[in-house]
Amino acid sequence: MPEKLVAVVVTFNRLEKLRTALEHTLGQGFYRVVVVDNCSTDGTADWLAGLQAPELVVLRNARNLGGAGGFHRGFDYAARELPEAQWLVCFDDDAYPEADVVAQFEALQIPPQVGSLGAAVYLPDGRISEMNRPSRNPFWHLREFFGAAGRGRHGFHLGDGDYHSAQPVSADASSFVGCFIRLDLVREGAIGLPRAELFIYADDIIYLLQLRRAGFQHWFVPNLRFVHDCATLVNQLDVYRPLWKVYYTYRNRLELYRIASGWFYPLILLVKIPGFFLSVRHYEPHERGTFLRVTARAVWDGVLRNYRKTHEQVLGFSRVEAQP
C-alpha cells in the first residue's frame, strides 16, 4: 500500500506565487495539502476559501509567525489530526513539486532508520538553488571538516554530481523546500516540532540536525525534484533584502553553529562574526549603516540566545531611510 504523504505549505502575502505552488500540488496525489496562512492581507484567505479541492486543508494563523512558526503548526496538525498519514513534505509558497514527485516518492524503498529525505531543488531557469543545497555537518565528518577549512561551504555541501546520482545520497541536512519527514518521529517525540521562536531561517537545518542526533538517517534523493522561485538572495550571494531578513539570518546561524560545532563553538564565533560584518560590502552605500546596526543586534541576541524580539520590533530597527 502506498505511504500517505501530506504536503505542508506555508504562505504569507504572496498570492500569485501560492497560486502557482498549488497549481503544481493539488491533484498530484497528496493525501492532504495543508496550507498554513500566516495572516495574509492580500486576498489569500478569500482565494483559498474558493478552491474546490477535497485534499485541501487551510489553517489560518492570527498573526504572522514566520516560516518556522508556520511549519511548527503545519507539522503539529499533520501529526495529531492525520494519524493515518505516514510522511509529510514541506515547502514555501514560492516553491512547488515537479509533476511526478508523489509517484517517485511512492516508488522508493525507505528503510526504517531513514527519518527524512531531501529533494533536489532548482531555480526556475534550471540551475541548482544554492540556498537549498543539502550538506553534511563538517564537525561530524573528517573529510568535510578539512573541506570546509579549505573550500568554505563548497567543502561540506553536496556537489553537482550528487544531483545526477541514481541512488540516494547520505547527508545531514537540507532545507524545508522539498523536505520529507517521517511523521511517527514527530508523534512519538523523537524529534518534535520545528522551533517556532526562530521565525525564519536555519530552523530547517537545526531541525534535521536534531533528527540526525536522534540516530536517524537523512537521504538526499535526486529524483525528487522541486522548483524554488526565490527572490531573497541576490545572484545567489549571501545578500538579503529587505534588511530585516539579515537579523534572522545571522541570529539563527549562531544557534545553528552552536548545535553543529559543539566544543568548537567559541572558535566558530571568532571566525564567523567578522564575516557577517564584512558582508556589508555587498550592499548599497545607503543601506550599509542599517546593515551594520542590524547585524550587531543579531550577533548580540544570537550569542545570548535571545529570541524574544517581536517581528514588529525587527521591522522597526531594520528600516532603511529613504535616499535624499
UniProtKB/TrEMBL annotation:
Pfam families reported in the protein's UniProt record: Glycos_transf_2 (PF00535)
Superkingdom, natural source: Bacteria
Annotated GO MF terms: glycosyltransferase activity
Kinase keyword on record: no
Domain Glycosyltransferase 2-like: 8-137
Protein keywords: Glycosyltransferase, Transferase
PANTHER family according to UniProt: GALACTOFURANOSYLTRANSFERASE GLFT2, RHAMNOSYLTRANSFERASE WBBL
Family: Belongs to the glycosyltransferase 2 family.
Name used for this protein in its record: Glycosyltransferase
Organism whose genome encodes this protein: Mangrovimicrobium sediminis
